[in-house]
């Protein structure tokens, strides 16, 4: 189950979509010269994912404040607060899962770096129970993760670079998915850029930037010229969240706009030169100007994001009877186990897929915890979907003595024994065990025999049968050899 965000169209008019769940796990780097459409691209991504995931925007130019009107983002004017208040605000952002825009406009570059470092560090240091998925967008990332200190102090650079490195390198485990945009790759610290797995490369002209962009896209150096020829709003996309091969995408339209629009040509005044001269050189009259109005009082940090922040209320789901819930669980488990390669996927990943599918079928809460899911998954892999059948209670009690990964092949043997079916082949046992190795299957059977859980027998015709002594059940004889080669995928 995936969520796709429409980013635009490729050269043939086909939609190019961004997989939001994959993006949260793999991060994104956007590069392009000024005027190439980076902010437009970020706005398209933010608008498409608004309401689906929490968003935090580090905005050095105040371009994204307009999101607050259309999508309910809280705009934080950083110039009105101290560093300590900024840290408290960031902690509340994590606690209440509010989408915010940190507007750094009006601050000097060093103050912007210190403020961003304070805010990002507070997001990163949130308690474990607040590690919710969050899209953290940093525009003009070369300001906050520069290669060299430049005009700012080394202390400010180290603090900002450290916070950006934590975001891109270690943020994923804390639910923080970095999306960074930069005008020049050559000015962006390599250890920050290297952590992104998805790339959207826009127009650039300098050879060093084209070469780095081509390397990240997996293109040959001689192919880098295509980056110079990109039109405004066109990007080359690559990464697991968007495309496995470089694809040219034209970013689609957006609903909001920046407060500072791009300059447009306007007609010059039509006054005669003499008239303009008289206007410019007229005597300046001394007059008393009224005192400027006092600046508005800043909103206290305690009130900007407090406990009263409205949290979107999810629509209530219908209450299902126990048998209806069990039917949904059985159907979902059956779908998961029948998908090709599911036996070789890690159980936590399958559990996330299971929870999402149950939610889509109107189950209000997860019907199983992870431990319960492991047990039901093992039963489903053995073809046992009805957990309420008391006849399996004794078999499950014996299976509880085994390691978790052995439960599925054991139950496959038990089911065959109970129903008088032929002994499962090595291939079937290997798939239930999540391996491609016949040797591991033989070691598995040998280990269970040593524990006196099963007893295997091979007759003169070479056919194997397996008994479960404690239950008094025995499978019918069958050849243990694998007639087809085991699948060449999985953990081996």
From TrEMBL:
InterPro entries: ATPase_Atu1862_pred, HerA-like, HerA_central, P-loop_NTPase
Stretches assigned to the Helicase HerA central domain: 11-76
Keywords: ATP-binding, Nucleotide-binding
MF terms in GO: ATP binding
Protein's UniProt name: ATP-binding protein
Lineage of source species: Bacteria, Pseudomonadati, Pseudomonadota, Alphaproteobacteria, Sphingomonadales
């Amino acid at each position: 189950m995936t969520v796709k965000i429409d980013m635009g169209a490729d050269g043939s008019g086909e939609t190019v979509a961004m997989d939001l769940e994959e993006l949260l796990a793999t991060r994104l780097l956007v590069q392009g010269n000024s005027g190439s459409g980076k902010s437009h691209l970020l706005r398209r991504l933010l608008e498409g994912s608004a309401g689906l995931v929490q968003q935090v925007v580090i905005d050095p130019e105040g371009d994204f404040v307009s999101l607050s009107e259309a999508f309910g983002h809280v705009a934080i004017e950083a110039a009105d607060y101290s560093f300590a208040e900024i840290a408290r605000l960031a902690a509340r952002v994590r606690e209440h899962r509010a989408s915010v825009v940190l507007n750094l406009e009006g601050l000097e570059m060093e103050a912007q770096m210190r403020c961003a470092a304070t805010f990002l560090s507070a997001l990163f240091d949130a308690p474990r129970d607040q590690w919710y998925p969050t899209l953290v967008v940093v525009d003009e990332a070369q300001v906050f993760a520069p290669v060299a200190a430049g005009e700012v102090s080394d202390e400010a650079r180290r603090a900002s670079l450290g916070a950006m490195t934590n975001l891109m390198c270690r943020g994923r485990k804390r639910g923080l998915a970095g999306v960074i945009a930069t005008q020049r790759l050559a000015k962006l610290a390599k250890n920050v850029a290297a952590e992104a797995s998805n790339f959207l490369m826009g127009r650039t002209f300098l050879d060093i930037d084209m070469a780095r962009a081509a390397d990240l896209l997996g293109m040959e150096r001689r192919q880098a010229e295509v980056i110079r020829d990109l039109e405004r709003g066109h990007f080359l996309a690559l990464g697991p969240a968007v495309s496995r091969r470089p694809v040219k995408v034209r970013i689609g339209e957006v609903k909001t706009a920046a407060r500072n629009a791009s300059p447009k040509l306007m007609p010059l005044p039509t006054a005669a030169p003499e008239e303009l001269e008289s206007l410019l050189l007229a005597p300046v009259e001394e007059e008393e100007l009224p005192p400027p109005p006092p600046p508005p009082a800043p909103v206290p940090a305690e009130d900007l994001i407090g406990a009263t922040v409205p949290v979107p209320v999810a629509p209530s789901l219908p209450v299902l009877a126990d048998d209806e819930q069990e039917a949904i669980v059985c159907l979902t488990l059956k779908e998961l186990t029948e998908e090709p390669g599911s036996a070789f996927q890690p159980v936590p990943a399958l559990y996330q897929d299971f929870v999402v599918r149950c939610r889509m079928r109107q189950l209000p809460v997860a019907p199983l915890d992870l431990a319960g899911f492991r047990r039901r998954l093992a039963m489903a892999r053995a073809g046992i979907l009805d957990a309420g059948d008391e006849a399996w209670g004794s078999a499950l009690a014996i299976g509880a003595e085994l390691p978790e990964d052995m439960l599925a092949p054991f139950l496959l043997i038990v089911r065959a024994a109970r129903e008088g079916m032929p002994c499962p082949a090595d291939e079937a046992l290997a798939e239930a065990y999540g391996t491609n190795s016949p040797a591991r299957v033989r070691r598995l059977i040998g280990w269970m025999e040593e524990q006196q859980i099963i007893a295997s027998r091979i007759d003169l015709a070479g056919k194997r049968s397996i008994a479960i002594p404690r239950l008094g059940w025995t499978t019918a004889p069958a050849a243990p050899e694998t007639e087809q080669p085991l699948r060449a995928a999985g953990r081996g």
